[in-house]
Design a protein that fits this description.
The protein has 332 residues and is α/β, with parallel strands linked by helices. It folds into two domains: 8-177, Thiolase/Chalcone synthase (Peroxisomal Thiolase, Chain A, domain 1, 3-Layer(aba) Sandwich); 180-329, Thiolase/Chalcone synthase (Peroxisomal Thiolase, Chain A, domain 1). 33% of the residues lie in helices and 23% in strands. It has helices at 24-28, 35-42, 56-71, 95-103, 119-132, 156-159, 208-212, 222-243, 261-271, 282-285, 292-302, and strands at 8-16, 20-23, 46-49, 80-84, 109-113, 139-146, 164-173, 179-187, 195-196, 219-220, 253-256, 311-318, 322-329. Strands 1-7-6-4-5 form a five-stranded mixed β-sheet, sandwiched between helices. The protein has a four-stranded mixed β-sheet with strand order 8-13-12-11, sandwiched between helices. A two-stranded antiparallel ribbon has the order 2-3. Helix 8 runs parallel beside helix 9. The radius of gyration is 19 Å and the shape is globular. The two termini are 28 Å apart. The protein binds acetyl coenzyme *A. Residues 33, 37-38, 41-42, 116-117, 156-157, 160, 195, 220, 222-223, 225-226, 229, 259-260, 287, 289, 318-319 line the site of acetyl coenzyme *A (ACO).
């Protein structure tokens, strides 16, 4: 017998970025690049970089705290904390355990999830399923990354792209017809080598050789990731929409992964969405990986762009290679 599912959605959001701003002008002094190249190829003007004593969990906990406040949920009421990240504080314990401690969410189970820049939407999907089933009541979902720690600051083809940050959402039961309507998640593992940190795990543990070879940095074939992103953003959004009987024209607010303005613009055109429905903050933060979508969602919310009843589309792609899209009807 099929069990009746209850609707689940987002109760509140929050974000955190480090104070330090690194501008394109700063980068011009570090590598052979220019503000003009970075702006026209990526849309990025500046990004945030953590202080020497900050780690992923610090940003994650602050974003989580703000989301709990917005949702009016006490940390002790949380049943589950999921942190999506590819830059955990340490291999273990999980960053979600550190965040659980920092928040005082003593009653929550925790785990980390690794799906690159798609991680937040992957985690949101898991959280919503957990609440829909009745197994959990309140789940904190966080996307947090400190890519500056795994960026080769002498490689102009990658170092201009990334920034640090965290975004969070509290997921709980919502009224009938609201919440998460559909998702489309996927991966093409055969293309994983286009975006990887080659060393530091069980395949190539840290050694003098891996360090000298720069294998603890992000290695990316940017043009291959670009082609994948442009194709998948439109495809996955259409699949999610079809699952809940909607069309691109039904989207009120489109929140894409903030990797590159040209990727966002290509996706927007493929879906034929008008510019005023697309939220963009890539100029301020660069690509913050798993934090990008929840930061954009939080800024769109607080900026008054999202109203109760709106159809909100979240869509991302990232290391894996992975993709993820989600369609929400906003409201509690
Ligand atoms: N400044 C100046 N010149 C540069 C820079 C720079 N920062 N970086 C590269 N160049 C040069 C290259 O050397 C090349 O020169 P050449 O023609 O003499 O060889 C030229 O600019 C063009 O380089 P391309 O790589 O072809 O530039 P492209 O237009 O493809 O843009 C970019 C590169 C921005 C990286 C693009 O491919 C992209 O955005 N890819 C997707 C990346 C992405 O989103 N990754 C994140 C995935 S999500 C995650 O999980 C982290």
């Amino acid at each position: 017998m099929m069990r009746q599912l209850r609707p689940a959605g987002i109760w509140g959001t929050g974000m955190s970025v480090p104070e330090k701003i690194l501008t394109n002008a700063d980068l011009e002094k570090m590598v052979d690049t220019s503000d003009e190249w970075i702006t026209t190829r990526t849309g990025i003007k500046e990004r945030r970089i953590v202080a020497i004593d900050q780690a992923t969990s610090d940003l994650a906990a602050e974003a989580g705290r703000k989301a709990l406040l917005a949702a009016r949920v006490d940390p002790l009421e949380l049943d589950l904390v999921i942190v999506a990240t590819v830059t955990p504080d340490v291999s273990f314990p999980a960053t979600s355990c550190i965040v659980q401690m920092q928040l005082g969410a003593d009653n929550a189970a925790t785990f980390d999830l690794s799906a690159g820049c798609s991680g937040f939407v992957y985690a949101l999907d898991v959280a919503v399923r957990a609440v829909e089933s009745g197994a959990y009541d309140r789940v904190l979902v966080i996307g947090a990354d400190v890519l500056s720690r795994i960026t080769d600051w002498t490689d102009r083809s990658t170092c201009v792209l990334f920034g640090d940050g965290a975004g969070a959402a509290v997921v709980g039961p919502v009224g009938e017809g609201r919440g998460l309507l559909a998702t489309d998640l996927g991966a093409v593992g055969a293309q994983g080598h286009y975006l990887t940190m080659p060393a530091g795990g069980s395949r190539r543990p840290p050694s003098l050789e891996t360090i000298e070879g720069g294998e603890h940095y992000i290695h990316m074939q940017g043009n291959e990731v670009f082609k994948f992103a442009v194709r998948i953003m439109g495809e996955t959004t259409k699949r999610s929409l079809a699952k809940c009987g909607l069309k691109p024209e039904d989207i009120d607010v489109f929140i894409p992964h903030q990797a590159n303005i040209r990727i966002i613009e290509a996706a927007r055109r493929r879906l034929d969405i008008s510019e005023d429905k697309v939220f963009i903050n890539v100029q301020l933060y660069g690509n913050t990986s798993a934090a990008s979508i929840p930061i954009a969602l939080d800024e769109a919310m607080r900026g008054g762009m999202i109203e109760p009843g709106d159809i909100v589309a979240l869509v991302g792609f990232g290391a894996g290679l992975t993709w993820a899209s989600a369609i929400l009807k906003w409201g509690r």
